[in-house]
Give the backbone structure.
Amino acid sequence: MESLTIVAKRKWCGTFVFFIFLFFVCLPVPVSESQNEKKEYLTAEELLRTEAGQFFVTRQFEEALKEFQKLEKEYPKDIIIKRYIGASLDHLKRDEEAIAAFEKVLKLNSDDLPSRQFLAKIYLRKGDLGKAEREFTFLVEHDKTGAFGPAARAEVAKIKQLRLTQEKAVQIAGRKISPQDFLQTKAAEHFRNARFEEALDELKKLEEKYSGDPLIVRYQAMTLDKLGRTDEAIQKFREGLTAVPDNIALHYFLGQTLLRKRDFEGAKREFEYVVANDESEAYRITARADLKAVDKIISDQKKAKRRWKFDASAKVEWLRNPGSTPKHVGFRSGRGVYSSGKISNTLGLTYRLFTKGPWSGKMGYSYSEAFYTRSFSHLNTFGNTLTGNLTYSRNFLGKPLLIDVGHSTAHTMLREQYYTTAFSETASFIYSPVSWNRLIFSEKWAFTTYDGDGTS
């Protein structure tokens, strides 16, 4: 009986193991997400890692737009991708396409606040104050997080103030078209999108319809300036000021054009007029800042016209063992460690030879003395140095770059006797990638003759 029981148990165990095996075999095999069902959305992190996201972050908007459009085909329900398409179009100033892109987002989710914020700013840029105010008001009323509402509320207040300003502007002498109506024209659209040739053609048509309107005249002059036709732009501004001599906007933008032409005195006169007469404060603040910059340029120019420059310096030092124990007998102090004061001074005179474009040249002479306060009179020196420099200055990647090459000849007397004559050639490369930093690379070649033992 005992042996039968053992056999029965073994058979039961074998049956149990068999059923466990069948259970695991029949379990559904896990499949990857791509095998089972394709994702419909990308997370923010995944989107940032895409080529489209990288292009957008690095402000390569043309490339970003193409890549986002490819992703949209792959993820047609992803609202964030559609929003990025609108944002790329917005950065490219393709306003109508951007508006269509954001409206597509709002059809899927009318509460998408970032898209409404983009739309509001585009409408504001186009001068459509009604639509801009509508979008900003929606943000104020529906933002529960506080991320959009406060800024939108401030924009609504600005729009209301702008409307009041425009109502007053319509009453300006010679005004025949309101700023809001002008911003709806093809001329304004072309100007916003930097299509200046087309803008100029449309402005000529508007000039026939609204002859002498200072707003049309101003935009004509500004467009000519953008096209590089600076003299024609200045003439157009002055034609407008002949008809309406107290038009603040014409004075301000004429000042801007004169500034670009480097007529700093003329620009200064226009900015001073705006600061003194702009009661609306629309241009006074920026004109005051421009005036300060122009004054600085004029001051620098006056300094630059001075050909002669005189420098003087003096220095007091305390030196430990200046004599030391050098190998050359003539320089040994014989006193071991001993300290001394040192008084030195330099007088220098520089003459600017020329300045032409980025090139400038100068030459200089300096005289120097060094005296020791203890018994080291044998170390007292007198020097004469003659220098010449050629400098090239330019902006590189928007930052100042300076290249300087120079030659100097220095003659030194030691204890009132000839000591050395040194010739040196120098080259320096100076670049400021940021305002608080300066990189300097320099090379110097020197040849010195010594009177003492004939070495060089």
Notes: Residues 163 and 336 are 87 Å apart (CA to CA).
